[in-house]
Specification:
The complex is a heterodimer of chains A (382) and B (404).
Chain A: E1 12-17, E2 25-33, E3 38-44, E4 51-55, E5 75-78, E6 84-87, H1 90-99, H2 106-112, H3 114-144, H4 149-166, E7 169-170, H5 175-190, E8 207-212, E9 218-221, E10 225-229, H6 230-238, H7 243-258, H8 261-280, H9 285-317, H10 323-337, H11 346-358, H12 364-373
Chain B: E1 6-7, E2 10-14, E3 16-17, H1 21-37, H2 43-56, E4 58-60, E5 63-67, H3 71-93, H4 97-124, E6 126-128, E7 131-135, H5 139-145, H6 147-174, H7 190-220, E8 222-224, E9 227-231, H8 235-270, H9 277-315, E10 317-319, E11 323-327, H10 331-347, H11 353-366, E12 368-373, H12 390-397
Antiparallel strand pairs in B: 1-2, 2-12, 3-4, 4-5, 5-6, 6-7, 7-8, 8-9, 9-10, 10-11, 11-12
The chains are: A alpha+beta (382), B alpha+beta (404).
Chain lengths: 382, 404
């Protein structure tokens, strides 16, 4: 036990509890620069034979600094098996620490300095946005490669049974009309070139079903099950549009299947639930849930645009026009809003800015415009 | 400083929390940001920082509490726990029912063990005046203390059996002639309601007993060195508090219902002409208001129970013959504080939470006084090696807070 304090460092008066007794001993503490950080030198003064001991940087539980201006009135420093030291002069302790070359970690710098906190805030916001804009969709697209087709098919079977029970009735279209549409659907599938496929090894089993109920609609289930409602066929007929409009819609649904949007959505929702729950759950479950729902909707809209682009490419490959599909969409949205088909344009565009965040599909006028532009549409990747 | 009074060699020290909402907000926001940046991996560090903030500012007889959990153990157990959680999530999302039920059954069977190791970890991580606290219950003690849970299961098995017998009688007696056989809902008549009510009452009594057993076990087996905890409350104290809580809850529900009826009347008269999409918006807002109302109706009751329980326990525990605690927490003041905190937290979308937490912690801590006979210097401790921290990570996920 050798006294080794440097003259530069002023000793701090403190109380030492040895871990076996609650009785305090008066000690002097000196903080010295060490190889990895400050070392703590403890010197017992109220014993006849002066005892002292040096604790290296990693033998001490260094208490964090909570505020730049204010300190707890008494600081406790745990020395593992050697009890704890209590310091009455927190300011002097902080100064001695700094003088001994203590480097505060990132968390402590964020805690005591506003600029550091703001910097990390910016990084966090940018990171979050990037993660959810690119990271999650990318990961979902990669993970979906490993999801077997059989799993998708069994899932779709269950979903179809549920939907049939709850919402849908058997189709009332004449069988020959159904057959005509199915034949054209098969022809369309024959035009699906390998270059259009997002997952080249993915071979879904396509089936086209007709149902009544749910209004004019069409949807695709993972694995290749497509459903078109009678009301959609009738809506096309009422607008005087040919089968090209319906085939355009089917091409869009084939796009969902080929891009495996159903499976990707499940994976994305999983990542979102866990990720945003961890990140924002501590703020409140309301904030976390809202962000999950909003981000989930953003992914849905992304999927819709992807499918629109796919439909454009497939229809071009089948040498069919996409303008009828655009007319069908526009006509349907106007029928929904109960307005004459002539009143379109500005009002719809203005309304879309807020609605964009809250809808599953991109705004209809923009979609229709893009579909009318045909395969050369600028928003689609080549 | 500490209010110290000397009488018959007994000194009184008021506990004091010297933290501030603003400072803890910084702690919290730093934890939040670093958790986001590290995709949640920062969680064990964050937990440690939070615990340290509250411990550092909790002064007992002039000395702060110290939180000394080894970081490495916290991190390892967090990762272990995260892996378990992800495995469970994957099993649940991909519909592997067998695996999911194995997980759930294992969790239920291990719950007492988890509670025990969480308490062991928490107390062994706490020091005061250099002395380490400890929790000396063996896992067998914890399972024995859990007997009311098994009794509750047995009661419900019995009630299900009784319901079967009763329903067989009633369907034979009361089937309408020519009516459709096999109704979608089984008929429930007065004796069956009575049986269910008895089951519910017994279940609540069992739950209270579990709480009592666990709390008393925690205090009796906790200690510093050779000095063990002392525990005076009895089961009927707990039952009384729960009874009063139920009355408060019903009063809260009645108040919320009265407010809702008034609001519904006002809304109806104002929006009697509303049609179409606006109606959906209206229904949406009414649904949100209903959820809010439920939370608000139960919140005073929960706060009431928490405060009364806190006061009961901290007025009736001590440490061997040396020390005992007194608590004068005003439960209605605590209920008012909780309601104010909930409203402000909702208004700020959750950003008031750190302030709320600090204010509630301060009200509780400042209400406790420590009475020590024979001076603070007589305690003798022993250092116990830190054990598993997995219990801590599990307890965290189960909502048991380190500071509470």
């Amino acid at each position: 036990m050798v006294e080794a304090s440097k003259p530069a460092a002023t000793p701090l008066r403190a109380k030492w509890f040895n871990g076996r007794h609650s009785r305090a001993r008066d000690v002097l503490i000196v903080l010295e620069p060490g190889p990895r950080g400050p070392a703590l030198h403890l010197h017992v003064v109220d014993l006849a034979h002066a005892a002292s001991r040096r604790f290296e940087y990693d033998e001490v539980e260094w208490p964090p600094q909570w505020s730049a201006g204010r300190a707890p009135e008494r600081i406790a420093v745990a020395l593992r098996d050697h009890g704890s030291v209590e310091i009455d002069q927190p300011q002097a302790w902080q100064q001695a620490l700094a003088a001994a070359g203590a480097r505060p970690g990132l968390a402590q710098r964020m805690q005591t300095r506003w600029p550091v906190l703001l910097g990390v805030l910016l990084v966090a916001v940018a990171g979050l946005l990037a993660f959810y804009r690119w990271g999650t969709p990318w990961a979902a697209a990669q993970l979906s490669r490993h999801v077997p087709l059989e799993w998708e098919l069994s899932l779709s079977q269950q979903a179809m049974a549920q939907v049939d029970q709850a919402w849908l009735k058997p189709s009332q279209l004449p069988p020959e009309r159904q057959q005509a549409l199915r034949t054209q659907f098969t022809e369309l599938l024959a035009r699906l070139e390998p270059s259009l496929k997002r997952y080249p090894a993915y071979a879904p089993r396509y089936e086209l079903h007709f149902r009544r109920g749910m209004g004019p609609n069409a949807f695709a289930l993972p694995g290749g099950t497509l459903v078109m409602t009678d009301e959609l066929v009738e809506a096309a007929a009422k607008q005087g549009l040919g089968d090209d409009a319906l085939l355009g819609v089917l091409a869009h649904e084939i796009g969902h299947v080929e891009h495996r949007h159903g499976t990707r959505l499940i994976v994305e929702q999983g990542v979102l639930n866990v990720g945003l729950g961890l990140a924002l759950g501590d703020v409140s479950s309301l904030v976390s849930m809202t962000s999950t729902v909003l981000t989930g909707l953003a992914y849905r809209r992304q999927h819709e645009s992807e499918s629109d682009c796919f439909a454009l490419a497939l229809m071009a490959s089948a040498q069919r026009p996409t303008a009828p599909m655009a007319d069908l969409l526009l006509g349907m949205s106007q029928a929904r809003e109960g307005r004459p088909p002539a009143a379109q344009g500005e009002p719809a565009q203005q309304r879309s800015t807020l609605g964009d965040w809250l809808s599953t599909h991109p705004a209809t006028p923009q979609r229709a415009e893009m579909l009318k532009a045909g395969a050369g549409a600028s928003s689609c990747p080549r | 400083m500490d209010s110290t009074t000397q009488r018959h060699g007994i000194a009184a020290y008021q506990l004091r929390f010297s933290g501030s909402g603003g400072e803890y907000f910084r702690v919290w926001i730093v934890n939040l940001l670093l958790s986001i940046v590290t995709l949640g991996l920062y969680t064990p560090w964050a937990r440690r920082r939070t615990a340290r903030y509250f411990y550092d500012h909790t002064m007992i007889a002039g000395s702060p509490l110290e939180f000394t959990a080894p970081l490495r153990k916290m991190v390892v157990s967090f990762i272990l726990f995260a892996l378990l959680y992800v495995a469970y999530k994957i099993a649940a999302e991909t519909g592997q029912d067998t695996v999911v039920s194995i997980f759930i059954i294992a969790a239920a069977l291990l719950a007492p063990y988890v509670w025990g190791s969480a308490m062991r970890f928490r107390l062994a991580s706490t020091r005061w005046r250099g002395l380490q606290l400890q929790f000396a219950a063996r896992w067998k003690d914890v399972y024995v203390a859990s007997w009311p849970i098994f009794l509750m299961a047995a009661i419900w098995v019995g009630i299900t059996y009784g319901l079967d017998v009763l329903s067989a009688d009633s369907t034979q007696a009361a089937r309408p002639p020519g009516g459709r056989p096999g109704p979608a809902w089984p008929r429930v008549d007065a004796p069956m309601w009575g049986l269910i009510a008895i089951g519910l009452v017994l279940s609540v009594l069992c739950i209270i007993r579990v709480e009592f057993n666990y709390k008393s076990l925690l205090v009796l087996r906790a200690g510093i060195g050779k000095q063990r905890g002392r525990w005076k409350p009895v089961y009927s104290d707990f039952v009384r508090i729960w009874g009063a809580t139920i009355v408060v809850f019903l009063a809260g529900v009645a108040l919320i219902l009265a407010l809702a009826a008034g609001a519904a009347y006002a809304v109806q008269s104002m929006f009697s002409t509303v049609r179409g999409p606006a109606m959906f918006v209206l229904i949406f807002f009414i649904a949100i208001a209903a959820i809010l109302g439920l939370v608000l109706a139960s919140a005073p009751a929960r706060a009431y129970r928490e405060a009364r329980m806190f006061r009961l326990i901290w007025s009736n525990v001590g440490l061997s013959q040396i020390a005992r605690f007194k608590c004068d927490l005003q439960h209605w003041a605590f209920v008012r504080l909780r309601i104010k905190n909930i409203l402000l937290t909702l208004l700020t979308l959750g950003f008031y939470r750190p302030f709320a937490r600090v204010s509630e912690y301060r009200m509780k801590a400042d209400a406790v006084t420590l009475h020590v006979k024979g001076g603070l210097d007589q305690l003798v401790g022993e250092l116990v090696r830190q054990q598993d921290a997995l219990g801590d990570a599990l307890a965290d996920m189960a909502g048991l807070d380190i500071v509470g």
